[in-house]
Amino acid sequence: MITLKSPREIKEMAVSGAILAGMHVGLRDIIKPGVSSWEVEKFARKYFKEHDAIPEQIGFEGYKYATCVSVNDEICHAFPRKNLIFKEGDLVKIDTVVNYHGAMSDSCWSYVVGKSSPEVERLMEVTKNALYLGIDQAQVGNRIGDIGAAIQHYTEDENGYGDVREFIGHGIGPTMHESPNVPHYGEAGKGMRLREGMTITIEPMINTGTWRAVMDDPNGWTARTADGGLSCQYEHTIVITKDGPKILTSQDPAMDEKYLYKFK
Asked: 3-class DSSP state for residue 207?
């Protein structure tokens, strides 16, 4: 079922999104060479508790952690680990979902540890651009396929990267994963028509090589690139309004001015 959110519900989700965005901003000072990925988990749990929010991922289908901390060839859903120590140049993706008094927000952000490389910088730039190209298409009257087509054309046709198919965006609120599915590939003009009040995530996962993923058998959660190449992800929760898409998880009001949700 797809729920269309009221102005009150959207405002509550924006508060949740602001908490989540603040946690991501705080991680910029945490993610450094020599730090374990478990420190990310500890920071996130502490931050959410201090802001009266709940890490919604804990307990979801048996998942035990507040965050997913995926590094380099890990596409998504990797566990935070005490024995995974960040190294110079690592590409780290942090994904988490916040429940603030019943209002949900979901965002993944990518970070480079220490000094970056041209390969990582380009992949991060293209992936972030793809996210915003997808957001541009999230207009009342457009279709789900318009979002995916814009992302796929830019990442695969224009830049030669692999656009992951196995994991996609989704509706959100009042639960973590709801209809509609929001693929990051597809055909323009196809799929469900977008309506005012829909809240969805757009979260392209882009690989340097093949788009195909393989599962990490030991834990049953972690997905990796099939060829061992790097993977990057950026994700925002947005609401579709008559004035265009509005980002509920913005970390940078200046960059997101065009899409910024204004509290009323």
From this structure: strand
One-letter-per-residue 3-state SS of 36-61 = EHHHHHHHHHHHHHHCCCEECCCCHH
pLDDT tens digits, residue range 25-78?
Answer: 999 999 999 999 999 999 999 999 999 999 999 999 999 999 999 999 999 999
Binding site for substrate: what residues are annotated?
Answer: 77, 177
Annotated binding site: 77, 95, 106, 170, 177, 203, 235
When the candidates are 3.40.50.12780, 3.40.50.300, 3.10.129.10, 3.90.230.10, the CATH number that belongs to 7-252 is 3.90.230.10
Residue type, 65: Y
Domain ranges of the chain: 7-252
pTM value is: 0.96
Binding residues for a divalent metal cation: 95, 106, 170, 203, 235
